[in-house]
């Protein structure tokens, strides 16, 4: 049986920018769209991007001065061709960011410095919804010490993982300890009971003479104690 040629609706697509019927190969892929193709044709998409950059006062996009072999990628800021593994992963169609990891990190720090005055302010705002000012105010209310153990100069924000609300400022050990106990008061209470009930205690049996005794066993761990 003779095969009929593909209809235009299956092999072609109309670009709303130039209003021309173009082959589907003239469109970038876009998995988020129903047809799996970008809205504009490649040439029109490039022209729109360049016009947008000019309108925002951004210079033209850089291009690699040397051919980029398969399996490699060019990083614009450092102008180097590197393996794909040197680029952070992303959900974009390409699967990788445009800049290599060192350049990507440098850009992130520059943005945090420009918008928030530093990376610490950025992370505090992003993770806990507070800034350095609120952090210092909360620490002052605690007397400048860890809210749990009382050690001076704590640096870690503690928050409720269910609600996201900030509870206080803790030292590294207390913050990590609460996380290990999953913020569960029952687990913490059982741990306290365990420590009080099974920990070996030094008992004074004679002036200057101590013996290690267990509350549950009632005898020292060894005859030398």
UniProtKB/TrEMBL annotation:
GO terms for molecular function: endonuclease activity. Residues 50-71 are annotated as: Disordered. Pfam families: Endonuclease_7. Keywords: Endonuclease, Hydrolase, Nuclease. Transmembrane segments: none annotated. InterPro entries: Endonuclease_7, Endonuclease_7_sf, His-Me_finger_sf. It comes from the Bacteria. This is Recombination endonuclease VII. It comes from Micromonospora eburnea.
